[in-house]
Structure formats: C-alpha cells, structure tokens
Amino acid sequence: MPARPATTSTPTSTLHTTDWLTLAPTLPRYSIDFLYADPPFNTGKSHSTPPNATKAGRSAQASYFDSWPTTADYISWLRARLLAIIPALKPTASIAIHCDHRASHHIRLLLDELLTPDHFINHLIWHYGLGGSSPRRFARKHDDILIYGIDPAKYYFKAPMVPATSQRLKGKLKKATDVLDIPAINNMARERTGYPTQKPIELLELLISAFCPPGGTVLDPCCGSGTTLLAAANLGRAGIGCDISPAAIGIATKRVPKS
Ligand SMILES: C[S@@+](CC[C@H](N)C(=O)[O-])C[C@H]1O[C@@H](n2cnc3c(N)ncnc32)[C@H](O)[C@@H]1O
Q: CATH number for the domain including 17?
C-alpha cells in the first residue's frame, strides 16, 4: 500500500500535502466525477508571490518550480500522473488539463494516446485580457483547457449560461461557447491570495457546473491556493485537492470553508 499523505478534512473538502502521483493510488476506483488539473506549464522558471501581494497582507510567501530539462521530460512527468489517476475516474467523468501555448499541442497528443482521439470533448480558450503586448507578435492573452471524457457516450455535461453580447440578445443569457471571456485576477481583486498563477473562481465555477453533476466530486491534483475546492464548495460539490507545496495547502486550507 502507498503511504497515506498528511491530510486535513472538512465534510466536503479534503486537502493533501503530497505529490499527485502519491495521492492517485490512495483514491477509490470510480470515485471522481471531474478532474481539473492546472499543473506547472513548463515555463522554465520559478513562480513566486509578487512583492505587492504580501504588502496587502493577503498571503504567505509561496513559490513553485516550473522547469523540466526537455518537453519530453515534462510530458513523461504528466503521463505518469494521468495514468495513475485514470482508474479513480467514473465512466461519466471528464478530465480538464489547463495549459498554454508551450505544451498544449503535446498534451493534446498525450491525451489522444491515453484516451484515444474520439474521447476529445473541447479545446477551451480562456481569454483573460490582462498583461502587456509585444512589438514582435500578436499579444498572447489566452490559456488552453483541454477536455476529454472517460466515455464519450456517457460523460456529464450541462451547458453553462453566460450573458449574451450581441445587440439582438442584449440582457439575455446564451450557452457559453468554447471561448471563455473571464478577466484574470487583478492586483486589487478581493479573491486574490497572492499565490502565483492563481486562477479566477469564476472560471472554476463555470467548468465545475458544466462537467461535475450536483453532489459529485471534483479532484484537483495541483490545487495551489485551492480555487477549485472553493468553487466546488460554492456549488455544493465535494472537493479533493493535493499540492506538493505545503505553503499552497496552507493557503488553500484557509480559503476552503470549514464545517
Ligand atoms: C499553476 S499552479 C496551480 C494554481 C491553482 N490552480 C490556483 O488557482 O491557485 C500549479 C501547482 O502545481 C503544484 N505542483 C507541482 N508539482 C506537483 C506535483 N508533482 N504534485 C502536486 N502538485 C504539484 C505546484 O506547487 C503549484 O501549486
């Protein structure tokens, strides 16, 4: 039996300070409805809490390492973890891998290999708008979220409704498309913890409401500041999170509601 990781627990949220690879074999078979993973992107650098975040008193210092010698090493790191977690997913479950231009094409091929191409559901574009521009190319303003179903005939999906933007439908709701216009967390945002690369709660609520049935269980095996678990709790879904960084789990534990 693999060693059990250090654990803190509330009725709906469980957080583990451990490697995704260590957690995976401890989870019961067919127990997860939705896997959302926002792993390091292989940017080749470390990510740290920006200096102004601690000044605002919102966070402990935190950082994580995000570099592999080659893309092949990075993909083989991810392959081992996906292979380990797939047995814990229900036949109705789906997998969302959050990545960017550096590796999205490699991860798409990896998921095709592990699940076969006909299990592909969506390539979502998270268009976040924030940041600078470049004189040498179009400004990079999106992340990629690749979604695959464990069983393409059975996966859960409920189309989220978002405000319509056209004049004709002004004031009405429409089904979300595969381009999600959600602002990144700005310096003054109340939800900002200071954890590097924290994702907005609105994005996670949208994904969870679409792919996890009410009362289901969401797993985030690289949970960072706990955004996914907070979103799951807000929506009445159970959340399981792990992160290799004790500082991340410290921040996530403070954010996730207690019983
Ligand atoms: C992009 S960040 C996640 C940010 C998170 N979605 C949030 O909103 O705060 C990636 C996380 O993966 C964690 N990580 C890196 N290697 C890991 C591993 N082997 N197992 C679990 N977590 C890992 C890092 O510590 C970091 O917190």
A: 3.40.50.150
Residues 32-77 pLDDT 10s: 999 999 999 998 877 777 666 654 445 556 777 888 999 999 999 9
Inside any domain, residue 1? no
Structural domain range at position 48 = 6-255
| Ligand 1 center from residue 174 Cα (angstroms) | 33
What is the Å distance from ligand 1's center to 167 Cα?
41
- What's the structural domain count of the chain? 1
224 lines ligand 1 (CB under 6 A): yes
Burial string for 171-196 (b: 16+ CB within 10 Å, else e) reads eeeeebeeebebebbeeeeeebbbbb
Does any ligand 1 atom lie closer than 6 A to the CB of residue 64?
A: yes
Q: Considering the entire predicted model, what is its pTM?
A: 0.92
61 CA distance to ligand 1 middle (Å) = 15
